[in-house]
Write a structure and sequence with these properties.
By secondary structure, this protein is an all-alpha fold. It has helices at residues 37-43, 46-55, 61-73, 79-85, 94-108, 118-144, 157-166, 177-190, 197-206, 212-223, 231-244, 249-257, 278-294, 299-312, 315-319, 327-337, 344-365; strands at residues 21-24, 29-32, 35-36. The structure holds carboxymethyl coenzyme *A (CMC). The site of carboxymethyl coenzyme *A has 17 residues, from loops. Carboxymethyl coenzyme *A binds next to loops.
C-alpha cells in the first residue's frame, strides 16, 4: 500500500494535468488557454470563451457562427420538461432546482449519454450549454411563481437569457445593452478557475464514467455551498447590514480587525490570489458602468468602495495580503440588474458551465485518467470481538 499522507483539502495534491486554465496567485494572473482574462473579458463574448475553453482554440468567424447557431437552436426545452420545472414548490432553493433540472435533462436526451463517442459528447455539450440558459431563467421564474417563457432564436445568448428572465409575457422587452454587455463579461470571468471544489467534483464523478449531465449536476451541488459559490450573496447582506446600522464603514472595519466573532470582510481574501484577484478590477469597472446606466441606488456601492479604500491602506489587510476578490462587487451588479440574492449562485453556475464541460472532456480524453479514489489514514478501533445484542 506504500506511504499514505493525509492532505486535508488537497492543498498539496495535484489531481490531474490540465491545459485549460493557468493561475499564478502571487502575481494575480488568470489565463484561459493562454489568453489573459482581462483581454477575453474586454474583447470576447461568453460563447466564444466557452468554445475556447472546450475546444482549446479561439473559433474562426465561421466556427463561432456555427457554434452560436447550434447552441441557439437547442435552447427550447421539451414541453414535458417545462411542466417538470413548474412543479417545484414556490420558494424552492434555486440551486436545488437547477441541479435537479440539469440531472433530469439526461432523461430527455438518452441519445447524448455515451461519454466516449465524440459526436455524442459534442451533442451533450451543446444541449447543456443551450438548456442551462433556459433553465437558469426558469429557476428565477419558478422562485417567483411566474409563467415560463419560450426562447427567441433571433437573439443572442445573454440577451435572450435576460428577456426570458425578466420580460412580462406578451410584452416587448429590450434589455439595456449595458446590462447585456456586463452580464456577458461576468459570465466570462466565472467560466473556469481550474481545480476548485466544484470542478474537482465534476472530474471525480466523471472519472467513474458517469455521463456529462450527472457530472455537471454534481458540480452545481458543490457550488451551492456558502464557502464556494455563496460569497457574492454574503457580501450583499454585509453591505445591507452596514447600511441598516447607519452606513459607518470605519466602525465595521474596526470590528473586522478586532476579529469579532463571525465578522469578516466578505468578498476579501482568496486561497490562491495573494496579490490581487485579476477578476475583481474588471468587476469593479462593470459595477460602475451598470449602476450608472441603470441609475440604480448606489448607496451600497459607496459603502463597498469605502470599505475597499480603508482596507487597501490598512496594515491588517496589507500584511495578510487581503484584496477584493471576484465576489466583492458582483452581488451589487446582479442586484441592480434585478436578480434576487438567491439567484447569484445560479448565475455563477451558468457562467461556470463551459469550464466544467471543458474539464470533464479533457479528463475523458486523458489516457492517464483513473477513477478518483483517494486513500485514507484509518484512526478507528483495532480488531475487537462482536458483542451479541442482548449483552450490550
Ligand atoms: N476579513 C478579515 N480577515 C480575513 C479575511 C477577511 N475576508 N480573510 C482572511 N482574513 C485573515 C484571517 O483572519 C487570517 O488572519 P490571522 O493570520 O491573523 O489568523 C489571515 O487573514 C489568513 O486567512 P485564512 O483564513 O487563513 O486564509 P484562507 O486562504 O484559508 O482563506 C478565504 C481564504 C477566501 C476563505 C478567506 O479570505 C475568506 O473567508 N474571505 C471572505 C469570504 C470570501 O470572500 N470568499 C470568496 C472567495 S472567491 C470565490 C470562490 O472561490 O468561490
Amino acid at each position: 500500500t506504500g506511504l499514505v499522507t493525509v492532505d486535508p483539502g488537497f492543498m498539496n495534491t495535484a489531481s490531474c494535468e490540465s491545459k485549460i486554465t493557468y493561475i499564478d496567485g502571487d502575481q494575480g494572473i488568470l489565463r484561459y488557454r493562454g489568453y489573459a482574462i482581462d483581454e477575453l473579458a474586454s474583447r470576447s463574448s461568453f460563447l466564444e470563451v466557452a468554445y475556447l475553453l472546450i475546444k482549446g482554440e479561439l473559433p474562426t468567424p465561421t466556427e463561432l457562427e456555427a457554434f452560436e447557431e447550434r447552441v441557439n437552436r437547442h435552447t427550447l426545452v421539451h414541453e414535458d420538461f417545462r411542466t417538470f420545472m413548474g412543479t417545484f414548490p414556490r420558494g424552492a432553493h434555486p440551486m436545488a432546482v437547477m441541479s435537479s433540472a440539469i440531472n433530469a435533462l439526461s432523461t430527455f436526451y438518452p441519445e447524448s449519454l455515451d461519454p466516449f463517442d465524440e459526436e455524442t459528447v459534442e451533442l451533450a455539450t451543446v444541449l447543456i450549454l443551450a438548456k442551462t440558459r433556459t433553465i437558469t431563467s426558469y429557476v428565477h421564474r419558478t422562485a417567483k411563481g411566474e409563467p415560463l417563457l419560450y426562447p427567441d432564436y433571433s437573439r443572442g445568448y445573454v440577451e435572450d437569457f435576460l428577456r426570458m428572465t425578466f420580460a412580462v409575457p406578451y410584452q416587448q422587452y429590450e434589455p439595456d445593452p449595458v446590462v447585456v454587455e456586463a452580464l456577458d463579461k461576468l459570465l466570462i470571468l466565472h467560466a473556469d478557475h481550474e481545480q476548485n471544489c466544484s470542478t474537482s467534483t465534476v472530474r471525480i464523478v466523471g472519472s467513474s464514467h458517469a455521463n456529462l449531465y450527472a457530472s455537471v449536476a454534481a458540480g452545481i451541488n458543490a457550488l451551492s455551498g456558502p464557502l464556494h459559490g455563496g460569497a457574492n450573496e454574503a457580501v450583499l447582506s454585509m453591505l445591507a447590514e452596514i447600511q441598516a446600522n447607519g452606513g459607518d464603514a470605519t466602525d465595521f472595519m474596526t470590528r473586522v480587525k478586532n476579529k469579532e466573532q463571525g465578522v469578516r470582510l466578505m468578498g476579501f481574501g482568496h486561497r490562491v490570489y495573494k496579490n490581487y484577484d485579476p477578476r475583481a478590477a474588471i468587476v469593479k469597472e462593470s459595477a460602475h458602468a451598470v449602476l450608472t446606466a441603470l441609475g440604480a441606488n448606489d448607496e451600497l456601492l459607496d459603502i463597498a468602495m469605502k470599505l475597499e479604500e480603508i482596507a487597501l491602506h490598512d496594515d491588517y489587510f496589507i500584511s495578510r495580503k487581503l484584496y477584493p476578490n471576484v465576489d466583492f462587487y458582483t452581488g451589487l451588479i446582479y442586484k441592480a440588474m434585478g436578480f434576487d440574492p438567491s439567484m447569484f449562485t445560479p448565475l455563477f453556475a451558468l457562467g461556470r458551465m463551459p469550464g466544467w464541460i471543458a474539464q470533464w472532456r479533457e479528463m475523458m480524453l486523458d489516457p492517464a485518467t483513473k477513477i478518483g479514489r483517494p486513500r485514507q489514514v484509518y484512526t478507528g478501533a483495532t480488531e475487537r470481538p462482536y458483542t451479541p445484542l442482548d449483552e450490550r
